[in-house]
What we know:
22% of the residues are buried. This protein is 25% helix and 33% strand. It is built from 4 helices and 15 strands. The protein folds into 2 domains: 2-134, no CATH class; 194-242, no CATH class. It has helices spanning 2-33, 196-201, 207-216, 224-236; strands at residues 42-43, 46-47, 54-55, 65-71, 74-85, 90-94, 105-106, 113-117, 120-127, 130-141, 147-151, 154-157, 172-176, 179-183, 189-191.
Amino acid sequence: MKKYVVLLFLIFWVGNLLVAQETQTRRFVNSLYQLDEFIKRQDKFVDYTNTDSYKGTPYNNPSFLSGNVYDKNKLLASNVALRYNAMADEIEIKESLETPISKARPLPKSPDIYVKIMQAIFVFVPYQGGIEGGGYFQVLYEGTKVDVFKKLNKKFYPAKPAKTSITRDVLAKFIDNPVYYLVSENGKFYELPSSRSKKLKVFGKNEALIKKYVAENNLNLNEEEDLITAVKYFNSLKNIEL
């Protein structure tokens, strides 16, 4: 009998917890409407909703995915629908995956607020202490001394109408152009050049050790996984300095 009482209590407790989380999520999402801000769905003379009018995507992922919103370590909203608009540098949020896209709103930009979209974590980093000029970064790896962040930049190429009757219109195009950064304990960002050899120089006085480790393990620093592997090794060294 005692077991059944405990089980009923757990069911009741979990049920109340889920209701509380849903209520908190709904309140948070509804509060975004009061900001009177709208998502930048049209940019560079392209209607993002008309996916047949361009190639590529202005988003990290064109589909909304399930995720959570946090204020520091406090959960603000759970199981909401999120996606990152790389062109506008906005996190778009709606209450659920089933919610109409017209109900989506941009998440307020704050260094205290971060999101987890499936397994991807996005943080907002201010510029010189201010929101203006700051931007979202994806956290690829958090180390003991040095982290790896990615800025999901996009290059945009406008549509080109056909010049003659025998040529075709060229659709507008979005091309990924990510930039990677090493981030120190004190929050300083070190941009990694596109060249593999120049990337090594960012490791400062440990450049020779990293170069040897990369060669011995046949790593390509232009590949995300290999870059993270090299930074993990870098974090294992003593007296590291960028």
